[in-house]
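**User:** My hope is that you can spare some time for a protein that puzzles me. I have put the entry right below:
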Amino acid sequence: MENLDIVLIIKMIIIGIVQGFTEPIPVSSSGHVMIASELLGLGDQGFTFAILTNTASLLAILFIYRTDIARLSVNSLRYIKTKEPLFKSDFRFVLFIIIGTIPAGLLGILLNDLISESVSMTLIAMMLFVTGIALWLIRNKRGLKSESTMTGKDSFLIGLGQAVALTPGISRSGATIISAIATGLNQETALRFSFMLYIPVSLGGVVLGITDFLDEPNKAALAVPYTAAFISTLIMSYFALHWFMGIMKKGKLKYFTYYCFVVGTLLLVFF
């Protein structure tokens, strides 16, 4: 294998680590991937690469929440068949996930081209500041609502937060967790609902991106680098989400505020 190929593989592994680490935490994975790509001299990796790495993060999240997903799926079907009150809470939670998915789903389809064309380092920096301010405002808020007491209105408002996160530099997990906590959800429910919302949106992106992936002209040449990025993203997403779960339990979101301010300032100064 040529040295150039080895260098590319190493760079792709680094990009995968960045994507995997930043996807679960409230600092904008897309913004950080763009920053890392710029620093490594890779430029924009395109939609195909984004779909690939997002799929890796999705698989990690599916694995971590596999028990919840199985319970929600089975109990929802049981409620539809039997109307047994015991299963109603899980059925309602699935409905809330559907409701929360609608805003981002619609805006993603309608504004995809506009969003992709508006990316810049300055925009990412400004949106990191917005994310940091929002995190600071809810840093001490402790909600009391759980899965059984949240409402359809709560899920829609959180879904609007996910729609706002289509803007480059706005963290998806950050926007949904901030919105969830602002509506009064407790930390555990806010985190779970945030990543349950990620699943259908990410799956939708994979479905919409299959054609682009199959039409990629350099699939053969990029097979090894892309595989390396996929694996590194998958592994890092798994560990990063577990780490972030601990952060949420301790209520230490304010530290991400500091991080967003520092990175946003560095972007404005050096780019």
Observations:
- Residues 3-270 form one domain.
